[in-house]
Specification:
The chain is of the alpha/beta class. It is about 30% helix and about 20% strand. It contains twelve helices and 14 strands. It starts with a helix and ends with a strand.
């Protein structure tokens, strides 16, 4: 399917050529910081004087695919870093605005363009440190020799590691599997991106946006990394791909590692994968069943690219049908595009109490 993405883009280029705010002191923050953080995390969550984000909450603010700005116990960081730009202004932010929130880190799940095309730019503008696999870091350093990147994940699927570079928050990584097309098992019906939206007609791509994107179409995966964040007595898991754990030889090791993480308070996980073409959403719900979250929030299910993606509402019923096929059924906070982009109220957890 990655080749299909490259082909589609090539065709498009042709066609379209207080206590809640710890650390708040008398000094005023840069007004750009306050403005940017208020836009991303909501004005009610940001101190208007200092720009500090509430330390008693976990906030995820979605900006397309599996990309989120995160405020966790007052720390601000990104998970994945690409603002979908095929449909101009569909996602209401920019790499410059995300850099302006001054993230301390950018955690990369894998390095395909739809997850990391803006990572180096945002890191350069903001001073953020990139975090991922050794392959991710090597690739980012090819883009910019000055980029700071911590290689924390193992190379073998099922491997776990810890990262202590995010002060006050424990980070555990699990090297897992990227999605992959496999033979049908018959467990669930196939899921195709049908019908595609009409956005290609109503909001056609602009040549300059496609030109910037074209340079990233061949970006390597570099391994798939899942992150678990421990803050207070909460554990939050995020992943941007789901691999064929029931059909790949490494699957049992990955599932065992995922089970050791659970149960968790919140799982923000991908539900789109190449294997859905033959096996529906079975891979996605296997991850959920292993991790056992109290709440699940889907990602990578929006209208992020022509032909191969559709609005989130088109797969909503299929997702809930698939969820009914497993033993663990969490509360679901289903995100819908574009209304839930930069809507932090949709994914907020209290840390107090």
């Amino acid at each position: 399917m990655h080749r299909r993405v490259v082909l589609v883009c090539a065709l498009l280029l042709t066609v379209f050529a207080g206590s809640a705010f710890p650390g708040a002191g008398p000094a005023r923050a840069d007004s750009d910081l306050v403005k940017a953080r208020a836009a991303i995390f909501g004005a009610d969550n940001v101190d208007a004087q200092t720009g500090a984000v509430r330390a008693d909450r976990v906030i995820f603010s979605w900006f397309g695919v599996s990309n989120f700005a995160v405020a966790m116990a007052g720390k601000v960081f990104l998970v994945d870093a690409w603002v979908p730009n095929v449909y101009r202004n569909y996602v209401p932010t920019t790499p410059a605005q995300l850099a302006a929130i001054k993230p301390s880190h950018i955690f990369i799940g894998h390095a395909h363009f739809d997850h990391a095309a803006d990572a180096v730019e945002i890191a350069a503008r903001s001073g953020a440190r990139l975090v991922g696999s050794a392959e991710h870091c090597a690739f980012f350093r090819q883009e910019s020799s000055s980029v700071r990147c911590d290689a924390v994940a193992g190379s073998r699927p099922g491997t776990t590691a810890t990262y202590d570079g995010l002060e006050g928050i424990g980070v555990t990584t699990v090297t897992h599997l990227h999605s992959e097309l496999k033979a049908p098992t018959g467990d669930l019906p196939p899921l195709l991106p049908i019908p595609p939206s009409d956005r290609l007609i109503t909001d056609p791509p602009q040549p300059d946006d496609l030109g910037r994107l074209a340079g990233h179409l061949g970006d390597p995966e570099g391994g798939a990394v899942l992150y678990a964040f421990d803050v207070g007595d909460r554990r939050i898991v995020w992943n941007d791909s789901v691999g064929p754990v029931a059909q790949d030889p490494a699957g049992p090791a990955v599932l065992a590692a995922l089970r050791r993480l659970g149960p968790v308070d919140l799982h923000v996980g991908s539900i789109q994968g190449f294997n859905e073409i033959t096996n529906g959403l079975k891979d996605a719900v296997r991850y959920i069943d292993a991790i056992r979250p109290k709440m699940f929030v889907p990602n990578h299910h929006d209208d992020w690219f022509p032909v191969i993606a559709t609005p989130a509402t088109t797969r909503e019923k299929s997702f809930f049908d698939a969820l009914a096929s497993i033993d663990h059924r969490p509360e679901v906070r289903y995100l819908r595009d574009p209304s839930d982009y930069l809507n932090p109220d949709r994914i907020t957890l209290d840390l107090a109490g």
